[in-house]
Amino acid sequence: MTKLFTLFASTLLGVISFGQTTVYETGNGTSDGWTGWSTPVTSNCSGSINGVNHYQFTGTTGNSYSLETYRQFNINSNDIDIYLDVLTQDATIEIDYSQDNVSYTNIFSQSVGAGYAITNFILPTYDPVVSSFYLKVKVSGVFGSPSSTNLYSMKINAVLNSSGTEEFEIGSDVLFKNGMFQYFTSTTDYQINIFDQAGRLITSEKNLKEFDFSGLENGVYFVTLQNSEGDRKTLKVVHSN
């Protein structure tokens, strides 16, 4: 029996308009404002949610500091993308994962140097293994000037898989059922290319409406959709019989 799990790997602008389910979003531009996260554990800094919905931590220039906060999630998906924006400098940003909120495993770590600026961090295609899990955000570094670190937008994207069924939709435009990719759109001028993981072209067709993956070998494939204006979207398909 064919199973397809999908993950969108880039952002499309323009006519072709569909995307992953946004499972969770907080921070700048949302009403959440990082509520629901644990009270931060901090060293040499203090944090608060301010009026523009981001977590701001302040301290003294030249002092080492650390902070961490966690939240439980319930997301039934084989793959999730995690996005986090941090305004800081001379710091290391980490994301840890746990199934029990006791034992944590580091799944992402990246350092930023001098220059106070927002950095966009992306952890793509992470498999949370279980549907109920915890994520912890940690930052450690040395305060520069200004002496603050800010957690801005955090977003988790995923395609939610319906347990026990072969069929699921992505938005209202793409349907997978029993190995068949189908694309529903009123756009009449677009190109679809399908590649295997090695980059070999499987098929290239203008205005393709459907494609049957069931006859292909198990593996990873990439479906690219491009409209006449050059806007492009890439869909990753993990195919198994």
Descriptive overview:
The chain has 241 residues and is mostly beta strands. It folds into two domains: 3-20 and 160-240, Immunoglobulin-like; 22-158, Galactose-binding domain-like (Jelly Rolls, Sandwich), CATH 2.60.120. The protein is 0% helix and 56% strand. It is built from no helices and 20 strands. It has strands at residues 3-8, 21-26, 41-43, 46-49, 55-58, 64-74, 80-88, 91-98, 105-112, 117-126, 132-142, 148-158, 168-170, 174-177, 180-183, 190-196, 201-206, 210-212, 219-227, 232-240. Strands 2, 4, 5, 7, 10 and 12 form a six-stranded antiparallel sheet that branches. It has a five-stranded antiparallel sheet with strand order 1-20-19-16-17, with no helix packed on it. It is elongated, with a radius of gyration of 21 Å. The model is unreliable at 1-19 and 162-172 (pLDDT under 50).
Strand tally: 20
Spatial shape: elongated
- Uncertain segments: 1-19, 162-172
- Tally of alpha and pi helices: 0
What is the arithmetic mean of pLDDT?
Answer: 78
Percent of residues in helices: under 10%
